[in-house]
Amino acid sequence: MSGTSTINYARADGIFKSELPGAIVFIALYIPLLIHNIIRSIRQPTYVLIMLAVFCTIRIAAFAMRAILAGSSTAGENLNLVVAEGVVYSVGFFGLLFSAYTLVLDRSVDYSGGGPISILRRFMRERRLIRLVLLIAVVCGIVGGTKAASSSSAEQNTGTTLRRVSVFIFLVITVMLVLITADFAWDEHKAGTRSKSTSFGHRYGLYVLTVIALLCSVREIFFAATSFNTKQQNNSHLWYPLAATPEFLAVCLFAVPGLVPSRAEIAAGKQFEPEATELYGQASARQGYASHAGGYVDNGQIGYASRAGYANQASYA
Fold first, then answer.
1. Residue 292 is inside which H or E element, if any?
2. pLDDT tens string 68-90
3. 20 to 30 Å CA-CA from 299: which of 88, 160, 161, 316?
């Protein structure tokens, strides 16, 4: 009798030997980024830099597992390893996404006024709430991955659903990142703020943050669009340019000098935030006053002309 055939889950999910060089290349690319972010987080211990170091560590681990699955003809038969690679890669996005979100909040000043839009803006600026939602996505991804490795079809279906929930939660927060970055740009435009610093990150940080937000969007839209087809999601011709590369480029952009503020700069920004908000309100009020004053001058000139005409008529009489 012939031996029982085994299933190579990695091949079934679309991970093939041809992508082994790509996985090795990304490991090599992330190692210097990890070292760089560890050094920066030691010299300048901010949440953003610490999370970037953690993200680079997770990415190295995920690409190492992917390289093993791609290069070995038997490793893919271990369902737990296949599931672990997918879970580690998916939930690891938390570090990059929340780092970008935190950085936008650290660099921006809240000029919120009143009305429904103000409520939405305040909601998007609630760090603890955003972090909690992202942690829920991480938990869903981990629990979903655990259930996906079960022998029960019901558990597997539950696991697949939880993993999709995780992906779409990440997508919602990514969209919010784009919105809050656009809101930051609009605030700077209205306030007319321009940095006089010679640092590239200080002067053009808004543009860098916009690119980071768009790169995160490309990654997460791809994952959401392929969440119902794992084999297509793992297709190396799509996965590397639409998932791996945008993440790597986004992490590289965090290294722009002056982009990530120090704790002292963050504290100084929060200290003067009420004053900045007040100045912004005064500027808006002055613009409104100038408009009204212009109207008064015009009305005065019209009235003066009318009075002059009336005087001329009186003299003729």
1. helix 273-316
2. 999 998 999 999 999 999 999 99
3. 316
